[in-house]
Specification:
mainly beta; globular
Length: 313
């Protein structure tokens, strides 16, 4: 009898372990880009057919390469640490620590400050490119409609820090130290968002828009969560499965063929039901995501650059 009970217990353990493994089994084949010469890829963007990667392990170093990633050019900079790196209007923009916004139209070889209208020593938390212009977040919120040549102060009264913003169909949503706010007139007036909408407003530092849905995520492990809204932020649902490997932190989004991807501390997760449920795909400690055709690139904190070829559903 004791032997039978022991066998039953072992069988249950095997089934449980198998089920747990299946729930986080990688579904995409990630392949390391061995030619990439650095172990850190904090920001990854495409400009025309050039892949541009920022390594911010110390002073920022840029690497530029062709699409297949077999040849790289190293470009040292004096920008110090940069946070966001975005493409807009055929050029590059980056936010810096205590030096505002910089612009390059020659693939990172030279950089020019774009700080007209920004406070001195502006510490950029996020730089967001939209269909209607650029937004820069930090100790306030500023908007530019002329490629960063001038900035207009659209800061929110009662807040001292703006973490990020997102724009969809004339609605602007900002994450601040005092919660989430929205505006229907591009920042002329702001209203605090309903606390019963389903989202915890603490530390939302990443936004994305895909197929008219807004996605919001926390970059702080202690507030690990990712939310989706299908009605321009009026109501939100919280995604499931993103803590399969423990408390998480989210950095970047990508979207391909009705599938959403997010980079996180524990790797890249994917969702095929608009952010309701998520599955782990691998690529540990992903910092950034970039899609080019059906190739998904992931820059990591210490393991270089990786690529997964995505399948059409």
């Amino acid at each position: 009898m004791k032997k039978s009970l022991l066998l039953i217990c072992i069988a249950i353990c095997i089934v449980s372990c198998h089920t747990q493994y299946e729930s986080i089994n990688p579904v995409n084949q990630w392949v390391k880009t061995t030619s990439y010469p650095s172990q850190k890829a904090s920001n990854v963007v495409f400009l025309l057919d050039t892949l541009i990667i920022a390594d911010t392990s110390s002073a920022t170093t840029f690497y530029t390469g062709i699409v297949d990633g077999t040849s790289w050019t190293k470009i040292n900079s004096t920008l110090g640490h940069i946070a966001p790196l975005v493409t807009y209007g055929g050029a590059l923009y980056c936010g810096t620590t205590n030096a505002g916004v910089y612009y390059s139209n020659d693939f990172c070889r030279t950089w020019v400050q774009k700080n007209n209208g920004l406070p001195n020593n502006f510490n950029v938390a996020d730089l967001v490119a939209t269909d209607v212009g650029l937004y820069v977040c930090g100790q306030g919120l500023y908007y530019s409609h002329d490629n960063g040549n001038t900035w207009t102060d659209i800061s929110i009264a009662g807040t001292t820090q703006v973490l990020s913003v997102v724009y969809l169909d004339h609605t602007l949503i900002a994450s601040t130290n005092a919660g989430l706010y929205n505006s229907g007139d591009n920042g002329k007036t702001w209203a605090v968002m309903n606390s019963s909408s389903g989202i915890s407003t603490a530390s939302i530092s990443e936004f994305a828009v895909f197929d008219n849905a807004i996605y919001a995520a926390s970059g702080i492990v202690a507030n690990s969560a990712l939310y989706a809204s299908y009605d321009k932020g009026n109501t939100w649902i919280k995604g499931n499965g993103l803590d399969a490997l423990g408390a998480n932190s989210f950095r970047s989004f990508a979207f391909y063929d009705e599938t959403l991807y997010v980079a996180s501390t524990h790797g890249v997760f994917e969702s095929s039901d608009n952010g309701r449920n998520w599955i782990y795909t691998g690529c540990d400690n992903a910092l950034s995501l970039l899609l080019k055709g059906s190739a998904l690139y992931s820059g990591t904190a210490s393991q270089g650059l990786w690529e997964a070829l995505l399948k059409t559903q």
